[in-house]
Design goal:
about 290 residues, mainly beta, Beta-galactosidase, Chain A, domain 5, 8-stranded antiparallel beta sheet, 1 helix, 22 strands, binds 6-O-phosphono-beta-D-glucopyranose
Length: about 290
């Protein structure tokens, strides 16, 4: 790795779980860990707060496997591939090592940018920029470097740590429409009030640019998730049966997490013209009373 990426006391290269390398970012007491594998933010902890992101104790940390937790980058498609079922769920970026290409540190922010390796012969470029300051801001920028239109669906698939999924609620989606991916025919329904959880939940809220807030009375905090360049918000908790089916997710871990994903997917999938760049940002803030 280019040594110029490191900045004394602000950005250091460390070896993490499974021997995978990550960038350890610091800024005014806040910290974040960005794994090169998948450009995966695994850890974010604001000054004086408990960790904000969750990851499974059963997660694999292997070069050719996705990490379960943190902020996986789903790119350049979300969910199953539209036409080829042999391709991996949520695209291929979770399986590759990204390359750090830029970094900076100021009085208020520590920033790194990683690039998806162009050597893979694909006519699309992705860059992920992580800004650690008074909040955590993650931007995924995609450029169509080819000569024809590029279909794109994507998510910053953020896993948040909560005290107990059965007592948290999510505001910011009232009256928004969502695709309920668990129901036959994937109907489009309308959200009434805050989102609460009492069973497996897997929804794509569509045509929404709104900020969401996870209210967590058990942890005495709220997590505010703002976004730009995103029309979808995915809300997911696997609950009991699906957790039991996933080898990299502990059977008893589902109460500890909720995914609120900044995305463009389902009916909000994009098409990028040749040369076009699209950027999508998620911004995470923690509020305590
Ligand atoms: C969510 C999807 O975003 O990701 C779910 O809405 C899916 O359907 C979940 O199960 C996890 O996906 P994966 O590929 O990481 O197991």
């Amino acid at each position: 790795m280019d040594k110029q990426i490191t900045v004394p006391e602000r950005i250091t290269i460390k070896t993490g779980k499974g021997g995978l390398q990550y960038l350890d970012l610091r800024c005014n007491g806040a910290e974040a860990h960005v794994y090169l594998h998948g450009a995966h933010v695994l850890h974010y902890q604001p000054a004086g707060q408990a960790p904000v992101l969750w990851h499974s104790k059963e997660s694999l940390f292997e070069a050719n496997k996705p990490i379960r937790g943190g902020i996986p980058v789903c790119w350049p498609w979300f969910g199953a591939h539209a036409t080829d079922t042999t391709l991996p769920s949520h695209g291929y970026s979770r399986y590759s090592e990204w390359v750090p290409v830029a970094s900076s540190a100021s009085a208020t922010a520590t920033t790194v940018t990683l690039r998806f390796p162009a050597s893979q012969g694909r006519s699309a470029l992705a860059e992920l920029t992580v800004v650690l300051g008074s909040s955590l801001e993650v931007t995924l920028a995609t450029t169509n470097t080819g000569s024809s239109a590029m279909p794109l669906s994507e998510a910053l698939h953020s896993y948040f740590a909560v005290s107990d999924i059965r007592t948290v609620s999510i505001t910011g989606l009232d009256q928004e429409q969502y695709v309920d991916t668990l129901l036959a025919g994937r109907p489009i329904l309308t959200q009434e009030g805050p989102v609460a959880f009492e069973a497996e939940t897997d929804r794509i809220y569509i045509n929404t640019t709104r900020e969401c807030v996870i209210a967590d009375p058990g942890m005495h905090r709220s997590i505010r998730i703002g976004k730009k360049g995103s029309l979808s918000t995915v809300v997911w908790n696997p609950w009991i049966a699906k957790a039991a089916r996933m080898p990299d997710f502990g059977d008893n871990e589902y109460p500890e997490m909720v995914c609120v994903e900044t995305a463009n997917c389902g009916p909000n999938a994009l098409s990028l013209a040749p040369g076009q760049t699209h950027a999508m940002t998620t911004r995470i803030d923690v509020e305590t009373p």
